[in-house]
Every structure is written in C-alpha cells, then in structure tokens.
Amino acid sequence: MSIGRPPQSIPAGALAPKVRLVCDVLVQDGLLKPEQLEAVYTQANKSGGRVEEVLLELGLIAEADLLKALAARYKAFFITSEKLAKADLARAVMDMLPMKFADKLGVCPLMFDANTHVLSVITADPDNLENLR
After folding, report:
1. How confident is the model over 75-84, as pLDDT tens digits?
2. Are 131 and 125 in contact (CB under 8 A)?
3. pLDDT for 18-31, tens place per residue?
C-alpha cells in the first residue's frame, strides 16, 4: 500500500519503485510525514540519485534512524556507518570477492562462516536478489 502519490509535475512511471517503497516504510514508521513526500519525490526525480541520499541531504531523517528502519524492513542486522567505518575486516574475507566484482554487484564482504560456508555481505540495495545469490 502506497502512502503518498508523487506530485503531478513528475510523469507517471518516472519515479523508481524503490523511492516509494523507502518513503512508505518511513511514513508507516512515523519517521517521515506525508506532507514531506512531495519534496522527497521531486528531489529524487530531479537528482536521479538514491532516495536514501535525498532524505539525508534534505535533513528529513537522521542516518541512524533511516538505517534502523530499513534494517527492520529487510529483517537484516543494523550497523551504523561509524561502526562500519571502524570495523576491522579480515583481509581473507575481503579477498573472497575480487574488488571489481564486488563493486559491480554493489556489495562488500563482511564476514565468512566457515561452518556453513556462507559469506555475509553488506549492500545498499537488498532488493537486488540476483546480486545476493
């Protein structure tokens, strides 16, 4: 169920579904007001960038609140940007995915479970299931 409609100045279909999904989650969680949607939709459409970046640039939500809400939506672990920047990632784990390949997929290896042979990654696009298989 979509919370807010894009303004009429944005052509139908011009707004990426991800923009509406993220905004809907934030409105449902009470972190974004429905009356703020027009500014977000307009800026996201104009910039062509990630809606998460637009929300932060407009100062509508704190990064930690945004990340917590999206982590809950995707049933994923939450980690702040500050903690991630300070994380000591094992070189062996980083070497499991060639840098060019990881960059192409938009992922970063985080940890490897030797018992299950599962490589956990962090990504800005958890909806892209093809890249996460």
Report:
1. 888 888 888 8
2. yes
3. 888 899 999 999 99
For residue 62, CA distances in Å to 31, 43, 94 come to 9, 18, 29
Name the region of 116 (left: φ>0; alpha: ψ -120 to 50; beta: rest).
Answer: alpha
Q: At what angle do helices 17-28 and 37-47 cross, to 10 degrees?
A: 150
pTM: 0.74
Dist CA 106 CA 126 (whole Å): 10
- Select, from the ranges 2-11, 25-34, 39-48, 98-107, the one with the highest average predicted confidence (pLDDT): 25-34
Estimate the share of the chain in helix, then strand, then coil, as percent rounded to the nearest 5.
50, 10, 40
Residue 45 C-beta-side C-alpha neighbours within 13 Å: 18
The 3-class SS string of 67-131 reads: HHHHHHHCCCCCCCHHHHHHCCCCHHHHCCCCHHHHHHHCEEEEEEECCCCEEEEEECCCCCHHH
